[in-house]
Write a structure and sequence with these properties.
- The complex is a heterodimer of chains A (276) and B (275).
- By secondary structure, chain A is an all-alpha fold.
- Chain A has a single domain, classed as Orthogonal Bundle (MetI-like fold), CATH 1.10.3720.
- Chain A is 74% helix and 1% strand.
- Chain A has 12 helices and 2 strands.
- In chain A, strands 1-2 form a two-stranded antiparallel ribbon.
- In chain A, helix 7 packs across helix 9.
- Chain B is 80% helix and 0% strand.
- Chain B folds into 2 domains: 57 residues; 215 residues, MetI-like fold, CATH 1.10.3720.10.
- Chain B is mainly alpha-helical and 275 residues long.
- In chain B, helix 7 runs antiparallel to helix 10 and helix 12 crosses helix 13.
- Classes of the chains: A mainly alpha (276), B mainly alpha (275).
- The interface between A and B is large, with 80 and 88 residues.
Chain lengths: 276, 275
Amino acid sequence: MLLPGLGFVALMIGFPLLYTLWLSLQHFSFGSAPRFAGPGNYARLLQDPKFWEGLRVTFALYALSLALQLVAGLYLALLLNRTRLLRGLLRTLLVSPFVMPPVVVGMMWLVILDPSLGIANWLLQTVGIPPALWLASPQWVVPTIAMIDTWQWAPFVALILLAGLQTLPTDVFEAADIDGARGWALLRRVTLPLLAPSIVTAATLRSVDLLRFFDIIYITTQGGPGDASQTLNIYAFKQGFVFLDIGYASALMVTLTAIVIGAVVVLVRLRRATQW
Amino acid sequence: MVTRRLAAGLARLQDGVQIAVVATVLVAPVIWMVTAGFKDSDAVTAMPPQLLFHPTLQNFTTVLTTMPFLRFGLSSLIVAGGSTVLGIVLGVPAAFAVSWNRMHWPALLMLAARMAPGALFLLPWFVMFSAIGAIGSFWVLIVTHAAITLPLALWTMLPFFDALPRELVEAARIDGCSDVAVLWRVVLPLVGPGLAVSVILCFVFAWNYFLFSLVLSDIHSRTLIVAAFNFVGEGVTDWGALMAAATLIALPPVAMTLLGQRWLVAGLTAGAVKG
């Protein structure tokens, strides 16, 4: 019963994976014959300023988005855990953003954040803050995309953490209450250490998506303005499917995949370390 | 006593205010999008925003008449539906085998497949399918999207199979049932909710997935997601129509999720918790 599934994976994922590794060792522009390059594509990558810039953008976007989502998600989970107000409605509201197609989320925010006609700048001006260029600004494009992704995925983080909070042993909290632990001290010394495995789980899931972030960037800015939001994944996509330099794009994708695997390995170790 | 009750009341009020703010942040952009779809071109960009406006269906008529929206919708349905069926048919028996034999490596392999960036597979697929002239065909879109749905189906079904009592399956085996019969007649009827979540998640993820259709579809098999992206890329300034299209595209996945939301989060996180 395992065979059909495994066969499919071998054919559609396993073989293409090996093929990508092989392609990454070729000089291969789509349409011409591949020529063996050895590590040539990887050497080129090390000297390509756009690769390093892409790496920097990838990590800037990753770090900022992950931090925002974990903090917002934790805040939401704690809020929902302590109050029963509108719980059913809120759950529904929390689930909705992350099942919306990224294309739709991108379109929605493009219109809201339009520099001249969007409602976001109108709101800012109403409260006396100068309007922003948002996605059209080289300085602000990464924080803006991080904000959009946080709107979409902090609710997902919140639901994971809420599920984690609800399985925590109540006796620990009773003991902490008797000892007089309140507010910040309770959160830092009791709740967070107990919740750490769930936090790492949420961080792992988001890390995988954020390091290979593609959809919303490609829809809203396609890596621009200039190369200000060009992550490695966007750069590799353009090399492969716009410039049809399949060999170099393969080397870029193999490198990005190695980074994702590295991050997952670190986070899985971290999860074991936080287990109690 | 009184001060304590006052303090409790105050805390409740604070929570209430925070809940209201959170709900607004989550829902306001979506309400803005949906209402913009019902506004005429003047009302869409009117600031301050018009809370009371004459709703019009004009944008939806524009979307449905100026581009083959329904055909794109049919393509999306074929691709998402086909890859869901394929993912379930391959993934559910695999999940049962993995759970029953307590194997780890096939599940980890599928998890790795789910974590790799899509473009890693897309490059070789593009080369391979171009070589046989299959770019743009529905079967290519279905099998490539099944690379998303199959691992998803396997991982969402695993906890449901793991929770079944082993005696049940053993008893059926002793009664002479084949493996397929055990799965079909004994096990599947017991994991109905799991199967429902699996189907919903597969469909939603395949419907929403952008990258593969962007490269592998052509004018005849273009999905709604890619059509919407082109709509944006052409610099369409008709915001009403844009938001009407966005609303229609978001409707199927959001509606399906609301039906199955109770089990959804458990399904999505299953991989990470067990892996």
